[in-house]
Structures are given as structure tokens and as C-alpha cells.
TrEMBL record:
<dbReference type="InterPro" id="IPR027805">
    <property type="entry name" value="Transposase_HTH_dom"/>
</dbReference>
<feature type="domain" description="DDE Tnp4">
    <location>
        <begin position="117"/>
        <end position="207"/>
    </location>
</feature>
<keyword id="KW-0479">Metal-binding</keyword>
<dbReference type="Pfam" id="PF13613">
    <property type="entry name" value="HTH_Tnp_4"/>
</dbReference>
<feature type="domain" description="Transposase Helix-turn-helix">
    <location>
        <begin position="48"/>
        <end position="98"/>
    </location>
</feature>
<dbReference type="InterPro" id="IPR027806">
    <property type="entry name" value="HARBI1_dom"/>
</dbReference>
<protein>
    <recommendedName>
        <fullName>DDE superfamily endonuclease</fullName>
    </recommendedName>
</protein>
<dbReference type="GO" id="GO:0046872">
    <property type="term" value="F:metal ion binding"/>
</dbReference>
<dbReference type="Pfam" id="PF13359">
    <property type="entry name" value="DDE_Tnp_4"/>
</dbReference>
Length: 211
């Protein structure tokens, strides 16, 4: 079944094409099941897209960073509906994210020689006046996210988001990362943005084998 949608953006009609998403069917099934169980729990009425289609819409948006207008047109729903679908799915995923204390206990059991702490900037669309979201380090607007990873780089935990102007060290303190690391006795490697973080956060110097 196909749905023909005529939408215009900035005076031009949208063109439709087939596309592939570089994610496994297991990922799609996982999110689809979360959405399906949530709909059953809240006794959701009929929706334009079934749970599997909603999951795919969300994954396309998150993976390919397509705009709401683009993803809504591609799935035959309104922009407001696409936004609600995305917000709903993100909340479901966030609720299942492991807590930092749980991750640190698991890291100790796994016997990791160290963990890696780093901050990343998630770009967002903002105007120049939105200074709290502007990162001087990256020269763009965004949200500061703290990531704790295993020695091989596998992400173990991510923090919530803060405005891009927030320094990595301050963000780590806000989320209680440093306090929990000190209590866990785990060694963590980090870049120079975390200088002064504490005895359990080590900033490798040039030529350091661990760096």
C-alpha cells in the first residue's frame, strides 16, 4: 500500500525515494516491543502508524537526523504527530537506561582496568542569541552529554543533557559522576577538560601509554 502526500517546504514540493537504514532488525524489534507494551498499558486508541512503523520513524529520525517535516512526510503523518511519536519513544528508551551506580558496580565485576570519561556535544538548531547553548570549544550550538565507556570504547552510560556552554568538568560534577567515581575506587581516563576532577580521574599526558 502506498500513500501519496503532497507537501511543500520553502515553496518546493518534497520528492520521495527509497532509502536504507544502517540498523539491525533486532534494534527495530526491541523498540517496537517497547512501544507495543506501552500502548497496551495506557490503552492507547487507534493510531495512524502501528508500533513497528512508529519505531522505524523514530529510528530514522535519530539515526539520519532528518527533520520533522521530512520524516513526517516520509511516513504519511503530520509534523505534530511525528514529534509526539518521537518524544514518546525517547521517553520509553530513557526509562530503561542503566543508572550510573549500576554501571559502576558492573564495571567492577567485569574487572575493567579503567573506564573512559568524555563529553560530547550534540548539535542543535539555535539562533545566535541563545548563548547558553553555544559551545566555544566546538564553535556551535548544542547540548553537553557526558559518556562513560569501557576500555574498548563501548558506551556504558550517558548523562542527561546540559546547555553546550557548560564545561565538561562542571557537567561531571552536576551529574554526580565524580562523587560516585571516588566512592567506587575505579580509575577513569579523561581529557584535559577534566583537570582537577580528583584522584580517581586521570588525565593522560603526551606520551603516556594509557593515552
Amino acid at each position: 500500500m502506498s500513500t501519496k502526500i503532497n507537501l511543500s517546504t520553502r515553496g518546493s514540493e518534497l520528492l520521495f525515494y527509497r532509502a536504507a537504514l544502517s540498523l539491525s532488525s533486532r534494534t527495530l524489534s526491541y523498540l517496537s516491543d517497547l512501544i507495543r507494551r506501552h500502548r497496551k498499558k495506557i490503552r492507547s486508541p487507534w493510531r495512524r502508524l502501528n508500533a513497528g512503523q512508529q519505531a522505524l520513524l523514530v529510528l530514522v529520525h535519530l539515526r539520519k537526523d532528518e527533520t520533522l517535516t521530512e520524516v513526517a512526510a516520509g511516513f504519511g503523518v503530520g509534523v505534530a504527530t511525528a514529534w509526539r511519536y518521537i518524544r514518546e519513544a525517547i521517553a520509553l528508551l530513557a526509562a530503561r537506561a542503566p543508572r550510573l551506580d549500576t554501571v559502576l558496580r558492573a564495571a567492577r565485576r567485569a574487572g575493567y582496568p579503567y573506564l573512559v570519561l568524555d563529553g560530547t556535544l550534540i548539535p542543535i538548531d539555535r539562533v545566535a542569541a541563545d548563548r547558553p547553548y553555544y559551545s566555544g570549544k566546538h564553535k556551535k550550538h548544542g547540548m553537553n552529554i557526558q559518556v562513560l565507556a569501557a576500555p574498548d570504547g563501548t558506551p556504558l552510560w550517558t548523562s542527561g543533557s546540559l546547555p553546550g556552554s557548560v564545561h565538561d568538568l562542571k557537567a561531571a560534577r552536576i551529574w554526580g559522576i565524580l562523587r560516585r567515581l571516588n566512592a567506587s575506587d575505579l580509575i577513569v581516563l579523561a581529557d584535559k577538560g577534566y583537570v582537577g576532577a580528583g584522584e580517581h580521574v586521570r588525565v593522560p599526558y603526551k606520551g603516556d601509554p594509557a593515552g
